[in-house]
Amino acid sequence: MYIRKVGAIVLASSLTIATSAFAQDATQDLKKAGHETKSAAKDTGHGVAKGTKKAYHKTAHGTKVAADKTADVSKDAAHSTAHGTKKVVHKVEGKPTPQ
Q1: Cystine design at 95: which of 43, 82, 90, 99 (Cβ 3.0–4.6 Å)?
Q2: Looking at residue 4, what is its pLDDT?
């Protein structure tokens, strides 16, 4: 009878130790997973921020280029319109057309 009690105590003790070790491993695994998730979220955030800044700068540059080209075309159109208007005025008045 005494051997059974000792055997039961030893078995219970070994199960308690194994369960404790398993619980500790599970807790460590959860902590590790939490840290990895946090790290991945930070990396994602940095990547999004970098992409957003790059897109902003590209858009700003493209807008400036478009504005410059529009200004150039507008000046050319104004010059051509003024020149054409002078030609028409000279034809109406009967004067020689300026070059």
Answers
A1: 90
A2: 61
